[in-house]
Structures are given as structure tokens and as C-alpha cells.
User: Fold this.
Amino acid sequence: MLDIHSNVQEHDYNHELIKVKEEPQSNRKRPRMTIPSKLIASGGGENTLSGTATGGHRRLWVKDRSTAWWDSCCHPDFPETEFRKAFRMSRATFDLICEELSSVVAKEDTMLRAAIPVQQRVAVCIWRLATGEPLRLVSKKFGLGISTCHKLVLEVCSAIKTVLMPKYLQWPSVEALENVKADFEKVSGIPNIVGSMYTTHIPIIAPKISVSAYFNRRHTERNQKTSYSITVQGVVDHKGVFTDCCIGWPGSMSDDQILAKSALYQRANGGLLKDVWIAGTTGYPLTDWVLVPYTQKHLTWTQHAFNEKIHEVQRVSKEAFTRLKGRWTCLRKRTEVKLQDLPAVLGACCVLHNICEMRNEEMDPELRFELFDDEIIAASSLMRSASSTQARDNIAHNLLHHGLAGTSFQ
Assistant:
């Protein structure tokens, strides 16, 4: 029996040798290559490249990256001025945001790696929004992989939109609206104004679909370079805090077209803005709740006086967008973010702007820039009622009659 078993094994072994020789070289199993890289017992981030098992313990291979800059930011001795310069806010405001987002963005440690802390996750997102730097530089600053940084930015922006937007970007209550009306009336002499509205454009890389819809003719003509964009329509209160945002419509659309597509327009038609005004630029139509300047060439003294006052209200929203783009430099650069992810990123910027404004965070004068005016005279299909025209004429007459105009003619 032993001899038979030995002969069978020898036959099988010879058969396998013959089989290997007959197989083409490309079909043979290649030996496993060893990677001369650093092996560590526990992960140092979410950028693991490969794994192996030695000594009964799972080990991960990761690229060695420096976290020196971020570690210095976390140190109590890190200068407050440098922290503000990097993150556009004080450490106290940053800690508040981290605390509010902790329950959503926090991850648990695993057997393979330690989770990235909440503060670092939020910091990656805010620094990216603040500087607009490419992801490879974000990776170097925080010692994380490029794909990890991109993922963190989107996750934190989504968390800001989900958790913080309902709290920090909402339409004012009835009591708060009375304060807004009073403050706008002090500025302009015009009663019942509850908001100042403006629309700006955010540059983007030409999309793969519907390219013509995102083509920005005004920016292209001004810069002599083909430009594509998406829009952000915002309404702000007397302090420059956003109370309503409409984000994501293509850059080829005019201000009045964007307004007609917005949820604000639907709510206004439902009675939300009855007997009150939102001041808009010349790109918007005159309606029962949108108050805009006179646009004809030859203005009367009364009409000129009205335009001067309504411009005082319009300046509030334009300056708010100037600070928005000044703080969050990513809004002035063509971003790597995909088109479908941009609304969450832009919404996060608006929410972070509100938090900074509410907490009186001063903006570095070096961050200020000139906001190019995108206003055009509206050729709107929205209905202009005779009552709204008469109401504007009455306001203009009252301003001049009561000595509130303060025009340059005097």
C-alpha cells in the first residue's frame, strides 16, 4: 500500500511539472512582491495603501506625512492672529462649530487605524474654503491623503448644511422683522423694507453637459476670456446676515429669471411678504414685494432722490457678498469640486459667513477686494403690476416731501 501511495504521489508530481511547462509564461502565477515600505501597527490616517499580516497582527502600510503645521495650530501657544488668518475666525468660534458638528462628523477608531479627530476634520474643510488652495497643498498642511482631504471637505460641508443651516440661516421671526424694518428705515427713510437682495456669480470649470447654460456672457466680455459660472442669490438683513439663499442656477440666467425659480418667489406669492419690501438691484423686476430703482434715462428730481436712498439699502447686500467672497477665497477661483457637489459647498460658505457676522468676527482688511458688479437692466417676463408702480411713486414722493431725500441737488 505504501509503495502504491508513493507511486501515485510521484505520478501527480510529474503530471504537474509537465502541466507547468506546457502553460504559457503569461498564465503562470507570479510570486508576491515585497514592498520595502514602513509598516506600522496602527494607522496614521485614512490614506492606507496596503496591508499584510505578520506575527499574528494586522499591519498597515501608510505614507509618512508631516502634521507639524496642524499640530502647531492646536498648541495653546499658537498666536490668535495667525489662527484668524488661517481660518478667518477666532479659536472660540472654531471650537463652537466643532462642538455643533461633533455628533455628525465624528468617526470611531477601528482595529486598523485611529479616526481623524473632529477638529482636524473641520479644520481641513474651513482652511480649504478660506484659502481656495488646491487639494495637494491641503494634504501637505494637514498630513492627510489628497482623496481623504477631498472627502472631508464634502462631508463637513454637507454637515454644515444639514446641522447649522436651519439654525444660522433662516427667515427672521415676526419680532426680528420689526427690528430689520426699523434699521433699514433709519438708513433709507423707506418703511417696511425687510431685506436687501443681490445675485453674484461663482466661477466654475466648463461642465461636460449643458455647457451653454453655464456660459457667463458678461464675465466673458469683461475679462476677454471664456467664463462659466453658477449663481448665488441672497437676501440679507440690516447687519449683512443672510436670511435666504438660492444657490446653483446656471450663470447664463439673468437675475429676474433666477428670482422666478427661487423658493423665495414661491413663498412671496403665498403671502410671506405681504405689505413689505425686499430691495433689489436693477436686474430684478418691480413687483408687489420687490422694490427696485428707476431705470429710465431721464429721471425727475423725485426719482433721482428715491434711487439714492434705495442704493443705500442695496449697498448692504453688496457689501455682505464682498465679505462672503473675501473670507472664503474658494468662491473667487474655479474649483475642483464637481458641479453636483457645489451647492453644499456654497451653502456652507453662506452659513459660515453668518456665524462670523453674528459673532462680530472682524475681517482682515487685506482680504477685501472689489466685487465686480453683475447688474443689468431687467428684461423680465415677471408681471409688473400697476399697484407696485404707484406704490414706488408714492414712496419717492414722500421721501422728497418730508425732507428725507438728501439728494446731491441740495
